[in-house]
Write a structure and sequence with these properties.
Elements lengths: L17 H15 L4 E7 L5 H14 L4 E5 L10 H7 L7 H4 L2 H13 L9 H18 L4 E6 L6 H12 L6 E7 L6 H13 L2 E6 L4 H8 L6 H10 L3 H8 L8 H11 L4 H13 L5 H8 L3 H13 L3 E3 L6 E3 L2 H9 L3 H17 L4 H8 L8 H14 L4 H13 L8 H17 L3 H11 L8 H17 L3 H16 L8 H14 L6 H13 L3 H18 L5 H12 L3 H4 L3 H13 L3 H18 L5 H15 L2 H18 L2 H18 L5 H14 L8 H13 L3 H12 L12 H15 L6 H9 L5 H17 L3 H18 L2 H17 L3 H17 L3 H11 L19 H10 L5 H8 L3 H15 L4 H11 L1
Parallel strand pairs: 1-4, 1-5, 2-3, 3-4
Antiparallel strand pairs: 6-7
Helix pairs in contact: 1-2, 5-6, 6-7, 7-8, 9-10, 10-11, 12-16, 13-14, 13-15, 13-16, 13-17, 14-15, 14-17, 17-18, 18-19, 19-20, 20-21, 21-22, 21-23, 22-23, 23-24, 23-25, 24-25, 25-26, 25-27, 26-27, 27-28, 27-30, 28-30, 30-31, 30-32, 31-32, 32-33, 32-34, 33-34, 34-35, 34-36, 35-36, 36-37, 37-38, ...
């Protein structure tokens, strides 16, 4: 990310263990005061022990302190006294013979310096004398302060541990800093017990390096802790600094050379069965257990178990969460081991792994992971595995399916791939590419392969055409999509026995037409329904019902409730897995419900569709679903959520190359930004203009959405005249023939409002809005018509009638669940009440509107309500008792509960209602009782009781 560095391996990563480094410096400072200390520095591999040691030793060198630094290795573990011998060979202690008492020299002799004393030949008394001699040497060397570091002590020989035990139980009376560094998982029980006892005695200071915190990981990477990449890397690295820096510097799946070198140091000492088992474990990955390891290596079970025990002791392998399984300490270590194996052996091991896994009933995907690394071009079993794995992954991981299909198409000899098989694989790969969001690649491949499909392949051809048309539609090529589907539908009409896939072809024909603003043909929906039921295809049946509901919605007869309910019932009884092949059915039901003003059902279906496609990795439909969800969120007043959802939809649409979806998402961002951020008037205009450019007005039916966004943006920016011009141009004239009937009342209302603000004649816009709303049977269009009539009455000076119409509009918006539009109508009504001198009523409406707007992120509405409230005096609660008879039974129930102080969501939970429904009822209660808050409501109800 710009402005944040990523560590480059080979450079020293940033120091982040500040507290631990401070404690080590304090131990050095104590030497100057004549105090010696023993420090246990412990941590898993990669946690930063060596880095801390380097810093401390550099500090000690600058202070002029003598330093002895010994690093133990696994190869020397069985050499008695090897660690002691290495220590006595360090420069500050090299002249140990001159310092040790004569009797000790006689016991130890030259053999100790070579580290080759046979412990069997050394009496117990002499072993204590050896440790005593070393203590004498250390005390002499440390008389003016010294530092001794024993690194990787988990590899120390047992005899050298005698010295550590003595020093812990009886520390030197000298300013010596002894730092004992080890890995806790590999340390012997004796070493851990000795040091734990020293911690209890107070002779040992423990510095334990655990995983980094998220903030420390951010500092190491030079990025903010809340950056998404930091969190991803932190979790994958398990908080280990070495892995964190390595993952940040990983390129093309290759472990950076610096880290690979460090990790190789752990495995190069492996030999014989241990090396072979480690290599086989790298091949098997997460499927690693003793039985499979034996099958891959050819070793006997007891040999495998002994090798695994050694690898566990070295912390190369660790027990996995699943019983009897093993895994590498980290995937980077596995990668290093894997890369270090010979390529010929690796291919053979993968084939053996595939064979053994198949014997144990592993699924095709598991087998395909092995086969793809060792394809035998003439092995039909390998081809079968890849085909089956791809078919299963098509609806769970389409990107992976496309990869396996590509291997199948190019990894085998022509003898195994006849023309029919090759064509079928190419069609499947095109579908996998499309579902993975690679729309252009999918379309291009289908262009090339459809000519090779023989006519008798009816089912495959119908399936391929339906998907091809959907891809063209998502890319904005509606003419091409409809032409493809028209040919397919014509073929169905002349086919006495249409295949099962024919129903889906008819459904896609209607859905694609709707994408381009064409009303679906009810006859086509009926035919699709009959075919689906004939074949017992419940998924296609639900799609046909969705198409029928969409046709009813476009027809604007006001009879949409029953078709939508039937479609929702059919779709809701299907599982997510059943709907995964056709998530577009869920998307289009959500859009049909949105157009019909059924926002609650639309939101539920959009959320379900999003869950389905995210679970199945189908990126192609996700922008459509997110766009629908964001639109619903805008209508019901969740403006912040709507803008975030729109931005995510735009991001995905840009990735898939769906230009017109990008434009729709930009239009939605513009609409929400204009209402949520009044202080940035230029932002909505810029977003709307980008939306228009993306959708190429005139080439896409729904491009008028960008025009509507631009109209709102320029109106809010103070240019109502341009608003009128934009809308009339988008609608193709004053009758708005290019605007859907169900949206015309809204557009007529905006034109009327902007005409008044611009000083233009209002003409007959209110009458046109009323005519457009008649017969639709939906609250939202009627609400916009009432708003338009109210604006016209206000322009004529009839303020009382205008208020009545504005309040009626607010009620209708409430019924539709459109909280933001309801809030705006309440504010408009309150403004006229102020002019009429009815301040108490105005105050009540303004307070209600402000609370609703604040709850739903409508900053512009909050600002406007507060501006009007600031002009009104606070007259307290209205005089006289409340007229509770004006309330319905449900309103009295909600009023009584609200008066107790419960919040909206708590009231909704108690009455099994949605929070939006409770808000609507509370708004009506406040208006009917002429009050402004719950506190006033509580006082009125108490007085009435």
């Amino acid at each position: 990310m710009a402005g944040h560095a990523t560590p480059v391996l080979g450079d020293r990563p940033r120091a982040v263990r500040h507290d631990e480094a401070r404690r080590l410096r304090a131990s050095l400072d104590a030497l100057a005061l004549g105090e010696g200390r023993i420090v246990e520095l412990t941590g898993d591999p990669g946690t930063g022990k060596t880095r801390l040691l380097a810093e401390m030793l550099g500090d000690a060198e600058r202070r002029g302190l003598p330093i002895a630094h010994v690093r133990c290795t696994a190869a020397e573990r069985r050499t008695p006294y090897r660690t002691v011998a290495l220590l006595l060979g360090e420069p500050p202690l090299r002249d140990w013979r001159l310092l040790a008492p004569p009797e000790d020299r006689a016991v130890v002799g030259e053999a100790l310096a070579r580290g080759s004393v046979d412990p069997a030949g050394v009496p117990q008394r002499s072993r204590f004398q050896i440790c005593g001699a070393v203590r004498s040497v250390l005390e002499h060397a440390a008389r003016d302060g010294a530092v001794v570091v024993l690194e990787d002590v988990h590899w120390a020989d047992p005899q050298s541990l005698d010295l550590i035990d003595q020093l812990v139980r009886g520390p030197l009376e000298a300013p010596l800093l002894l730092v004992i560094v080890h890995r806790p998982r590999q340390a012997s029980p004796r070493l851990r017990a000795t040091l734990a006892h020293g911690v209890e005695l107070g002779t040992v200071t423990q510095i334990e390096l655990g995983p980094l915190t998220l903030e420390e990981s951010g500092r190491l990477l030079g990025m903010p802790a809340d950056h998404p990449r930091v969190l991803d890397l932190h979790l994958e690295a398990h908080g280990v600094p070495l892995y964190l820096a390595a993952l940040a510097g990983e390129v093309g799946g290759r472990v950076p050379a610096h880290v690979a070198g460090l990790l190789l140091g752990e495995v190069t000492s492996l030999a014989g069965p241990e090396a072979l088992v480690a290599s086989a474990a790298a091949v098997l990955g997460e499927h690693c257990d003793a039985t499979l390891l034996a099958g891959v290596t050819g070793l006997r079970c007891f040999e495998v178990e002994a090798a695994v025990d050694d690898l566990l002791a070295r912390d190369i392998l660790r027990p996995a969460a699943r019983a009897s399984k093993f895994e590498f300490r980290h995937r980077l270590l596995r990668q290093v081991v894997y890369d270090g194996t010979a390529s010929a052996w690796r291919r053979s091991a993968h084939r053996s792994a595939a064979r053994v896994l198949a014997e144990y009933g592993a699924p095709p995907a598991t087998l395909a992971d092995q086969v793809e690394r060792a394809i035998a071009p003439t092995d039909p079993e390998h081809l079968r595995i890849l085909r089956e794995a791809a078919a299963e992954a098509l609806l769970t991981d389409p990107g992976r399916a496309a990869h396996w299909l590509d291997l199948a198409l190019h990894g085998f000899s022509d003898d195994l791939l006849d023309d029919r098989t090759r064509t079928e694989l190419r069609v499947l790969r095109a579908q996998a590419l499309g579902r993975a969001g690679r729309l252009a690649e999918s379309r291009d491949l289908l262009h090339r392969v459809m000519g090779d499909l023989p006519p008798e392949e009816k089912a495959l051809r119908a399936s391929a055409v339906a998907f091809w048309a959907l891809v063209e539609c998502l890319l904005g090529n509606f003419a091409e999509a409809l032409a493809l589907l028209a040919d397919g539908v014509a073929g169905i009409a002349g086919d006495a026995e249409p295949p099962r896939e024919a129903a889906v072809l008819l459904i896609e024909h209607g859905l694609v037409g709707a994408f381009d603003g064409r009303a679906p043909d009810p006859a086509g929906a009926e035919l699709a329904l009959r075919l689906a039921r004939r074949h017992g295809d419940r998924v296609a049946e639900s799609g046909a019902l969705v198409l029928g509901a969409l046709a009813a919605t476009f027809a604007d007869t006001g009879r949409t409730r029953e078709p939508l309910a039937a479609a929702a019932t059919a779709l809701d009884r299907l599982s997510d897995a059943e709907l995964a092949p056709h998530p577009e059915f869920v998307a289009m039901l959500g859009w049909a419900e949105t157009l019909a003003g059924q926002f609650q059902g639309a939101e539920r279906h959009f959320l379900r569709g999003i869950r389905i496609v995210r679970t199945s990795g189908q990126e192609h439909i996700l922008p459509v679903l997110l766009l629908g969800l964001g639109n619903v969120q805008r209508h019901v007043g969740d403006l912040d959520d709507a803008r975030r959802t729109a931005a995510k939809s735009r991001e995905l649409a840009e990735q898939t190359g769906a230009g017109y979806l990008t434009g729709l998402a930009l239009a939605l961002e513009s609409l929400t930004a204009g209402l949520a951020e009044p202080e940035h008037a230029a932002v909505p205009v810029e977003l709307a203009e980008r939306a228009l450019a993306a959708m190429r007005p005139g080439s896409f039916y729904w491009a008028f959405c960008a025009s509507m966004a631009l109209a709102q943006a320029v109106c809010l920016a103070g240019d109502p005249a341009r608003c009128v011009t934009v809308l009339l141009d988008a609608g193709r004239g004053p009758e708005l023939p290019r605007i859907p009937v169900f949206l015309r009342p809204l557009v007529f209302m905006i034109i009327l409002k902007s005409s008044v603000e611009a000083g233009r004649p209002t003409a007959d816009w209110a009458e046109r809005a009323a005519r457009a709303a008649d017969g639709l049977g939906r609250p939202a269009p009627s609400a916009y018509a009432r708003l338009a009539e109210g604006l016209a009455r206000r322009a004529d000076g009839d303020l009382a009638e205008a208020v009545r119409l504005f309040e009626r509009a607010a009620e209708l918006f409430g019924e539709a669940g459109m909280i933001h539009a309801m809030t705006a109508s309440l504010i408009t009504a309150a403004c006229e009440l102020v002019r009429l001198g009815r301040r108490e009523q105005a105050t009540a409406l303004l307070v209600t509107a402000k609370n609703l707007a604040r709850r739903h992120g409508a900053a512009r509405a909050v600002e406007e309500a507060e501006r009007w409230l600031s002009r009104l005096p606070d007259d307290g609660p209205p005089s006289g008792g409340p007229d509770l008879s004006a309330l319905t039974e449900r309103e009295r129930q909600i009023a009584t509960i609200a008066a107790t102080g419960l919040k909206t969501r708590e009231i909704a939970a108690e009455l099994s209602l949605s929070p939006r429904t409770v808000d609507v009822h509370l708004t009506r209660i406040y208006r009917k009782l002429n009050i402004s808050s719950r506190a006033v409501l509580a006082r009125l109800l108490a007085r009435s009781a």
